[in-house]
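Lab notebook, bench 4. The sequencing result for the construct came back, and we need a structural model before the next group meeting so we can plan mutations. Quick request posted to the team channel:

Model the 3D structure of this chain.
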Amino acid sequence: MRRSLFVWIGPLCSLLLLGAALTVLYHLTESWHWHDIRLALWSQPLPPLAGALLLTLLSYGCLCCYDLLAVRMLGKPVPWPQVGMTSFIAYTFSNTLGFALLTGSSVRYRLYSSLGLGTFEVARVILFCSITFFLGLLAWGGLSLLLGQARSLLPGWPDWAGWGLQLAGALALLAVLGYLFWPGARLSWRGHQLTLPSLKYRLLQLLVALLDWMAAAAVLYVLLPSGSVPYGVLLSAFVISSLLGVLAHVPGGLGVFEASMSLLLAHYLPADKLLAALLLYRCIYYVLPFLCALLLFASQEALQQRARWQRLQGLMSAMREFLPALISLGTFAAGTLLLCSGMVPTMRGRIEAVLQIFPLHLLEISHVLGSVSGVLLILLAHSLYRRHDGAFRITQWLLGLGMMFSLFKGADWESALLLGAFLLVITPCRSLFYRKGSLLHAQFTPGWLMSVGAVLLGALWLLFFSYRQVEYDQSLWLNVSAHGPGAASRALRAMGSVIAVLAVVGVAQLLAPLRVSGNKPGKEELARAQALVLRHGGGHGYLAQLGDKSLLFHASGEAFLMYGVEGNSWIVMGDPIGHASLVEELLWQFRELCDEQDANPVFYQVSARYLPLYLDLGLIPFKLGEEAIVDLKGFDLAGSRLRNLRQSHAKGKREGLSFEVVDVAQVAALLPALKAISDTWLRSKQGKEKGFSVGSFEPDYLALSPAALVWHEGHIVGFANLWISDNKESLSIDLMRYSVDTGTAPIMDFLFVELLLWGKGEGYESFNLGMAPMSGFNDHPLASYWARLGNTLFTRGSRFYNFQGLRRYKEKFSPQWEPRYLLCTSRLTLPRTLTHLISLISRGPLGLMNNMLKK
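Done. Here's the predicted structure in token form:
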């Protein structure tokens, strides 16, 4: 409990500090309005903007020198472009997200590790860069405090406060000098030893750090009115405000930095011009480098397969790990842009232009929906960071809608252009978002909630600041007019809608039961499961090796079941595998675990073997269909009932087909050829890999079992991976794929016949052809509703799936049909259970929608 509270203390303190800073800023700007800032922004001449861009480039060049010095100190032969790129990525994260020691350090660790640096060496680079950053901060800050510059920025301070600041400045400078001229090569502190760089590198550290802080402050200096603030004064205020921003742990020091600068420079220039310059500074020094980094990574993502990038392949692979984080951050920024633009008055001329084409009600609705789209993007940014595919699709839609709403609410083409550019940049990165997860019940961390709270506080500040001249009245909520109080009403309704959305999400978070997604199995657990499958049979147990399901073992380790989690459903795939005497205890173990986690237990594609045990668990069975089992001992092509198969098999031989079973050791070498066949087969079916109940083309998975191959003219034209066991009770296959351009050769029939003959020769008792869904239902008027529904789907559902054709094909092998069931706790939960099951198999609801649309 104490630990949980401690986790929240930091974010809450940061929010309180941000709120205090915004309050100070609000009172400092009491005498002016948003129109003054807008005028100051648009009146900015081009030469200062160009100078600010050049100085920003110089500042980031100095930051890159931090890493260059660190790598050179280590004596590592890492090319300087890769070092510069790594440094740029790290500082883009640090400057935009804040928490520089955490974000920048994690970025450096991953990227430098991919370039061959060891963990200790990466740690030394991180420490070197951190020390360099604070050397500049302490040097300029200490000098400012010692010379009394900070006191002159805030006249009226008592003498003791001024002396205290001068003492702090002297201590800061002493710390810098102590580091530079420490007599030994090591620095000890609390039992820890730090190996110091040589004096040459320490002096270079200080020089680069001083230049960096000077360049960063100069970016803001050239954006201010000429001669308004002496550069020395601005540098002092800049360093002190940056220090407060770092201590506040607010991302990028947002709000705290602006409030501090406004307070320190209040006697030098009007607040509207200062805030306009600060806004431009944020855009040029923070937003623009982030966008450049995003464009750089997107271009590298598109070009990484080219031969000329082959030497940088390791770096590119590492960068792929950070693209989702960058896109998440960009989405957060896009949502913030939409949300905050709804709180700012729209120019009168633009509203008039929009009203000449569209009605006023469309403008009102677009204003509200634009802000709602913004807060939804902010919330989705967390799921994008987790690489959820559903979040990416929804984000694309929201960005498109945000562009449209921006134009309709007042011809805000600037926001629409930024959103459109961001949408174009992230679209090629679709493949990076592949994980499944709940968007409604996403678990937000305290740090992420602090960021959302900071944006909401900023939006509220913009609302109060923009319409401080409008006296609040309840009638504002219903006022609909183009100008005057109508603008305040639109912003008020937009903020009310945003708070309502956040309240709904908050209630959903509070009411959602605690979910445990289950631990993914490790290598040892997978090995234990595979050993049980080989000993006891149960071919579906091979699916555990895909690693997408959790495993639950009996206490003895001699039985297990596998399950996937979707929503509040824990869905077991097939019957438990292992000693039959342990199955009952294992099932109750799973039932108790589901009850403990408030989850709904579901069993999918189970046989009638343990049906009494499932009923004892309080589960209700629903028949799914029937599974075709061929008795291999009695299988013989000579019979008249298998005449069609015999003819197809003979035709395949005449057309040059041949069959081979290769053992496990040979599979790995064949995987490239099998992959080409699999990709062609998938494209011909216009689908994608399924999951959960069937395997997918995963090299590690396919390399665990023998493979059956069909050859034609020296080339593999079809294959299937085999599910085998030591007891030879049953033989089955999972993936069966073949080339679609081999003419009229009956590859499927030929492969199945040869497999049946091979299995019979190897001594297997039966061959499992798989299930025929929705077949075997009793079409009786008094049958259950589920049975009648299943029979209807079987006879009339060919539009969605060829149920009858699949049944007829398997009938050619004269199998015995065994029922397979779905079990859940209640008939009322069946629709939700089916939704969760389909989502698991289709790898998410969007996967199911894609397949349906393609069909």
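The chain is about 60% helix and 10% strand.
Will bring this to the meeting.
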